[in-house]
Amino acid sequence: DARVTQTPRHKVTEMGQEVTMRCQPILGHNTVFWYRQTMMQGLELLAYFRNRAPLDDSGMPKDRFSAEMPDATLATLKIQPSEPRDSAVYFCASGPLAGRYTGELFFGEGSRLTVL
Amino acid sequence: ILNVEQSPQSLHVQEGDSTNFTCSFPSSNFYALHWYRWETAKSPEALFVMTLNGDEKKKGRISATLNTKEGYSYLYIKGSQPEDSATYLCDLGIGAQKLVFGQGTRLTINP
């Protein structure tokens, strides 16, 4: 059963530490998204990639966040240095993209980050 | 800035009652709309993919309609059950480059 895999599932760290979250998209999906669950329970888009190339990271605080996709099976979201306000659940999602986008996204189970 | 709006933000419904809520979007550049169900402590799961004006999709007691000319989609739940309690998200695909999510409608079914 194909699914998006995220690690770690839970992370507790201290302010100032570096945090790296990893995502393995579903094999064959060429679009990967990083979202953060907001206090209002919505999804805030941080970054997304198509065919490993970053298409939009305008939702990401550039001074401390970075997103990369070193290969087709791995996407990373890094926070350095982390701050308490970064505490949230971070979701990775992948989807197929062919010409016009019509497919739905498949979400990982999320990485719950707590910054003390 | 593209805005996808969902209303209401939250909804309390008595078990057995039917309900519906809305996803509104600018009608230009529409390519696809998706509905997701997001249960607490889980990740969003896709319910429907809708691409054509007039689309109607159904899965059990849940159905959805799409009007791209006026820019809205309705999600209906017939005979609500406690397991329907969740946040329902819609997202709008605007071409091959962008997906925009609404803030969701949080549905609570009261036994």
Provide an overview of this structure.
Chain A is mainly beta. In chain A, 0% of the residues lie in helices and 52% in strands. The radius of gyration of chain A is 14 Å and the shape is globular. The mean pLDDT of chain A is 90. Chain B is mainly beta and 111 residues long. Chain B is 0% helix and 54% strand. Chain B has no helices and 11 strands. In chain B, strands 2, 4, 5, 9, 10 and 11 form a 6-stranded mixed sheet that branches. A 5-stranded antiparallel sheet of chain B has the order 1-3-8-7-6, with no helix packed on it. The radius of gyration of chain B is 13 Å and the shape is globular. The mean pLDDT of chain B is 90. The chains are: A mainly beta (116), B mainly beta (111). At the A-B interface, β5 and β10 of A face β4, β5, β9 and β10 of B.
| Head-to-tail CA distance between termini of chain B | 40 Å
The total beta strand count of chain B reads: 11
SSE string of chain A, helix = H, strand = E? EEEEEEEEEEE
As residue ranges, the low-confidence spans of chain B are: none
**Using only CA atoms, what is the Rg of chain B?**
13 Å
User: Cα distance, first to last residue of chain A?
Assistant: 36 Å
Q: Largest interface, with Cβ-Cβ < 8 Å?
A: A-B, 26 and 26 residues
Q: How do the helices and strands follow one another from N- to C-terminus of chain B?
A: EEEEEEEEEEE
- Give the DSSP E fraction of chain B (strand runs of 2 or more residues): over 45%
In round numbers, the mean pLDDT of chain B is 90
Number of helices of chain A: 0
Strand content of chain A: over 45%
Task: State the helicity of chain B in percent bands.
Answer: under 10%
Mean pLDDT of chain A: 90
Main sheet: strands, sense, barrel of chain B: 6 strands, mixed
What is the overall silhouette of chain A?
Answer: globular
Counting DSSP E segments of at least 2 residues, the number of strands of chain A comes to 11
How would you sum up the major sheet of chain A?
7 strands, mixed
- Tally of helical segments of chain B: 0
- Tell me the structural class of chain B: mainly beta
Could you say which structural class the secondary elements and strand pairing of chain A correspond to? mainly beta
